Amino acid sequence: MIIFQNVTKIYNIDDHETVAVEDINLHIHQKEFVSMVGKSGAGKSTLIKLLTGEEKPTKGKVSFGSYNVNKLKPNELPFLRRKMGVIFQDFRLLANKNAYENVAFALEVAGRTQQEIMEFVPQALEMVGLKDKMRNFPRELSGGEKQRVAIARAMINHPDVIIADEPTGNLDPVNTWEILKLLLKINELGTTVILTTHNKEIVNSINKRVISIEDGRVIRDEEEGKYILV
Amino acid sequence: MLTTLSRVIKYGLVGFWRNGWLSTATIAIVFLVLVGLGGLLMFNSLANIVLTDIQDKIDVSVYFKVDAPEDRMLEVQRSLESLPEVKSVEYISRDKALEEFKEQHKDDSTVSQALEAIDSNPLAASLNIKARELRDYEAIAGYLEKDTYKEITDKISYTQNIGVIDRLKKIKGTVEQGGLLLVVFISLIAALIIFNTIRLAIYSNRDELAVMRLVGASNFFIRGPYMVEGIIYGITGSIMSIIVVTIAVFYTAPYASIFVPDINGWTYYLSNFFSFMFAQVFFGVGLGVLSSYIAVRKYLKL
């Protein structure tokens, strides 16, 4: 359902060419749980930006379901993004909105009615175990709780895929496991999950597909793989 | 769609409110532009009324000798009517002139007694000529001074007001040009200020905008609130300007009547209030939306 076909991305900064990813060929199926591993700067984030349409490939084709991502016009991108839930290392919650409002925001911008918002937001927050902290602002939440709010927000539009870009990078081991369990649960319920990380332990313990990236290339792609540092 | 629209308006209002001082300053400059524009519009229409009023009173009259035959006089009328510069020619016969004279002086017993004493009509027939353009009066007067007409015409009079009108027109032209220049100038400053306000708003909302893009907000949803802010600047500025101009006209209208007794500035203003209001709101909102749009296009990545 997600296909990278001979994808190359070259950044041109001050007339200096930097190859971020080169000749990537990937096929990610529906309901798969994929870990993308590699050192910082290996090209993981670039692949995610190419998938969300933030960046356009220099060469090759990225497709997501029926969308040809790199051919989308700016006014079509929002519809693609409503089918993807993205979570980040730095949570990206709005500081002046409480947990409920942060999640509701994703429904508001998608044009959902107030009634739907009042129905779905508590459900999503309950799923991530934060029903009793709905009215708390991000500054009143721990790192793990913030990331759970972000997951609730990512899930609220019922996306086809959850893209988690280093979601546990800022978390202690206990919270890391909480978040990972949540992602596995989401995957079991039928949503594709793409997880980028450099946490060796979690990758090795879940026995799912692992794609290793180094210097912008896929060097290993294994079902039930391990995080092997070269 | 309606939900989205109401949310876009809500976000616009919230942004406007959050920007407090910046919004106030922006409205102040829009207000200034609109007061300038309003003053210019008022000046222009009043000056036009005054000018047409004075112009209407201008004509050339040619008085014929008392014994001039009527068919010769009508011949002069016809030849005048064939001139392209001439708008209208009115023939006033000796009898009609007498009638009008009597009518004008009916309360004055000495005049009517004097007329009775003469026992004949002392008045001359005349032609009243109006030209299409002010500058044509001289040419028409010159045409009447031709030798062929000399034997039947007595005198040609044309009002000396033309100099005054020329001066009035010059003043009007200068004031309008200067005013327009001023309005254009402050409009540019206003546009820059609105532009900058929106730019700052976009900058301070960058986190919110990043999240909006992340969760798939449509372009309309992302850009709309800033356009709404622009509209609010325009509307608020124009409402304030309309109030101030209305008060100003109310208090200055009596003074304007001193110069031109026929015109009541206040009633004129009221009768044109809606077109004036429309011009103000249209210009204010146009200015706000246009500058916001440019800022959004330039600084708001989708």
Automatic annotation (TrEMBL), chain A:
Protein name: Cell division ATP-binding protein FtsE
Subunit structure: Homodimer. Forms a membrane-associated complex with FtsX.
Main location, first listed in the record: membrane
Alphabetical list of InterPro entries matching this protein: AAA+_ATPase (IPR003593), ABC_transporter-like_ATP-bd (IPR003439), ABC_transporter-like_CS (IPR017871), ABC_transpr_LolD-like (IPR015854), Cell_div_FtsE (IPR005286), P-loop_NTPase (IPR027417)
UniProt keywords, alphabetically: ATP-binding, Cell cycle, Cell division, Cell membrane, Membrane, Nucleotide-binding
Pfam families, per the entry: ABC_tran
Family as reported in the entry's similarity comment: Belongs to the ABC transporter superfamily.
Function: Part of the ABC transporter FtsEX involved in cellular division.
Top-rank taxon: Bacteria
Subcellular location: Cell membrane
Keyword Nucleotide-binding belongs to the record: yes
The species this protein was found in: Candidatus Wolfebacteria bacterium GW2011_GWC2_39_22
One Gene Ontology MF term: ATP hydrolysis activity
Membrane topology: Peripheral membrane protein
SUPFAM superfamilies on file: P-loop containing nucleoside triphosphate hydrolases (SSF52540)
SMART domains to which the protein is assigned, alphabetical: AAA (SM00382)
Gene behind this protein: ftsE
All copies of domain ABC transporter, residue ranges: 2-230
GO cellular component: plasma membrane
From TrEMBL, chain B:
Annotated InterPro entries: ABC3_permease_C (IPR003838), FtsX (IPR004513), FtsX_ECD (IPR040690)
Transmembrane domains' residue ranges: 20-43, 179-203, 231-253, 273-296
A GO biological process held by the record: cell division
Pfam families documented for this protein: FtsX, FtsX_ECD
Start and end residues of each FtsX extracellular domain: 59-146
GO CC aspect terms: plasma membrane
Subcellular locations according to the entry: Cell membrane
Annotated membrane topology: Multi-pass membrane protein
Protein name, entry field: Cell division protein FtsX
